[in-house]
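User: Please go through the entry that follows and flag anything odd:
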Amino acid sequence: MTLPILYSFRRCPYAMRARMALILASKKCELREILLKNKPEEMLKISSKGTVPVLQFQDRVLDESLDIISWAMETHISNVHSYSAAEEIFSAELIHLFDTKFKYHLDRYKYASRYGEDPKLHRQECKIILDCLESKIDPRPWIFGKQVSLLDIAILPFIRQCRIANPNWFFAQKFPNVINLLDYFEKSDLFAQAMQKYELWDPAKNNGNIFP
């Protein structure tokens, strides 16, 4: 059996959430760890975007993380929270908010010099969104209770990046639900497995790893 090939970069939040979906769904693939500053031709030939994750099948390519997640979870997974109709709408709205507005401001907060922007202005915009999330969740320990959900894995990698940008500022904010949720996430077995380190893929060695 030929496994799908996943091009991934360990710290990329998009690749991170795709890897978590594959873990939760027990979907095996060949993981090829790359550097974004040195993208392999093999990946660029199948996805000119030059971003990760990219999941290559024999007959098609998925190069959007949410598409990879949808493929991984196309059947009900017993260890993933099953949405009610209202939860599905709530989740979709929040994922869209984080993938668009939050990510926009997060990039300009973290990489202000690259964009020529005021980081404090964009940090405040991130805070507004996190305050909004704070008022809408009561994690126990995940957003919808005891089981991790698509919403958890979709937005927490971005919240983690916001924390990494300035931990002192992040922990000084009044969003304990968000902070507790992120803490539980970072201590989870799911996170540990998703963040396992692999050597860089070398086309000459063809040293991909079976994942998960």
User: Anything to note?
Assistant: The first strand starts at residue 5 and ends at 8.
